[in-house]
Amino acid sequence: MSDIDVPAPADPHAEACGRRERKKQQTRQALHEAALRLVDEQGLDGTTVEQICEAVDVSPRTFFNYFPSKAAAALDLPDSGISPEGAAAFRAAEGELVPALCELIGASMDDAQQRRRMKALVVRRPELMPAFAQWMGGVREQYFALVRERADDADALAAVALTMAALSVIVHDGTAGGERPGAARLLEGVEQLVAARDVRLRDAA
């Protein structure tokens, strides 16, 4: 008898699932690209879900399987702001709460290209801002729900508020970009906010 290892036969079910998942990702990306182009050219009010679907050759029913609105499609807003991997890492984290939360939120900052595209589109089409703000509010609630698993409600609320405020600070001062990991930049923003507690007023004019 030969000792040569014979490769195990491929799992047809796993292959089929893999193909379906790739197809879903391709459809989502195509819908996003079509919505981005149309909204950028025509504005949000001038673009319809039907136009987006026609560009991708799918039905409106299929569209709403991927995005709740044309604004969400144009901005490529995911259903959840927390990846399964990020949630698992936070649940397994040890040590201080805020640095662990910075790791969680900072990971979403590292897709620089997507972040720049989103910011540029909102600047060109400010009518998208309400949809983005609503999404961010939902993401904040998702962070709070996750952090409550590892901290008391009051501490969770304070930690999320502090970290999201730090995110706003580094976005506005331009340090949200760059080569360093998002978590490190975010933690610096937290430290900047905390340090502001001891800033003294300038002398009155």
UniProtKB/TrEMBL annotation:
The segment annotated Disordered runs over 1-25
Molecular-function GO terms, alphabetical: DNA-binding transcription factor activity; transcription cis-regulatory region binding
Q: Does the keyword Chloroplast apply?
A: no
Q: Does the keyword S-adenosyl-L-methionine apply?
A: no
Indicate the residues that the entry says bind DNA: 48-67
HTH tetR-type domain ranges (all copies)? 25-85
What PANTHER family does the annotation carry?
A: HTH-TYPE TRANSCRIPTIONAL REGULATOR BETI, HTH-TYPE TRANSCRIPTIONAL REGULATOR RUTR
* Protein name per the record: Bacterial regulatory protein, tetR family
User: From which organism does this entry originate?
Assistant: Microbacterium azadirachtae
The organism's lineage?
Answer: Bacteria, Bacillati, Actinomycetota, Actinomycetes, Micrococcales
